[in-house]
From TrEMBL:
It comes from Leptospira ryugenii. Pfam families: DUF433. This is PF04255 family protein. Gene3D superfamilies: Winged helix-like DNA-binding domain superfamily/Winged helix DNA-binding domain (1.10.10.10).
Length: 74
């Protein structure tokens, strides 16, 4: 998925955290909700100003970020 068209980041909005375009809804918030067990449909019901494609863009973005990282053994 091409997440660039759905997400943005600006130092003037939430200190540059990635957000869904034209909102103050962070990628982090969407991922937290998914991690807490909310379905995409439940997220959309709770935040009607976003679309399914926005949630999928958050997932795609996070996948790209994680792909560039490595987990350090503790």
């Amino acid at each position: 998925m091409e997440y660039i068209s759905r997400l943005s980041s600006s130092p003037d909005v939430l200190l540059g955290k990635p957000v869904i375009k034209n909102t103050r809804i962070t990628v982090e918030l969407i991922l937290e909700r998914l991690g807490d067990g909310m379905s995409i449909e439940e997220i959309l019901e709770a935040t009607p100003n976003i679309k399914r494609e926005d949630v999928l863009a958050c997932i795609s973005y996070s996948s790209d970020v994680v792909a560039k990282e490595s987990l350090l053994a503790s």
